[in-house]
Amino acid sequence: MDKTIINKVCAQVYQKAPEVRNCQPSISEQGDGKYLFIFSGTAFGSNGKPIPRIVRAVSDKDGKIIKISSSR
Known about the structure:
Layout: H1 3-16, E1 26-31, E2 34-44, E3 50-60, E4 65-70
Antiparallel strand pairs: 1-2, 2-3, 3-4
């Protein structure tokens, strides 16, 4: 996958989930021209406790996000 397309997907995910902003995703090909990006980061609750956060994004080969989900 091209670096510019990876950066495009990352920018879209970072906009929706800023707590994973400094994380590099792991990328795997899903077939049919789709790619799975997995970001893991840490958010902080109202009491200051760290909460692990996983964001998964599926994109096509052009960098358009098809589906995005996250853990809480």
